[in-house]
Amino acid sequence: MKLKFEKKFLKKLSKLPREDQVRILAKLKIFEETGRGDLVKLVGYDNIYRFRIGNYRLKMWIEGGECIVFDLEKREKAYK
């Protein structure tokens, strides 16, 4: 699966501590290569998924073989 990143996601990622950035990018690389990860389709939305990495939640849009990561939130804010 091919990953693409929106500017909003990249901006939020750049503000995180370096070790969190590395962990998130490593998990996304594994997902890109194998398709494995904690991925759940969001109820009520077409092709929008939540990807869990530790205390962070990523939102992504998946269609065909392409995945666009568009948002990043801490767990506490993601479910409000």
UniProtKB/TrEMBL annotation:
Keywords: ATP-binding, Helicase, Hydrolase, Nucleotide-binding
InterPro entries: RelE/ParE_toxin_dom_sf (IPR035093), TA_system_RelE_toxin (IPR052747)
Keyword RNA-binding listed: no
Segments forming a coiled coil: none
GO molecular function, one term: helicase activity
Protein name in the entry: UvrD/REP helicase
Phylogenetic lineage: Archaea, Methanobacteriati, Methanobacteriota, Archaeoglobi, Archaeoglobales
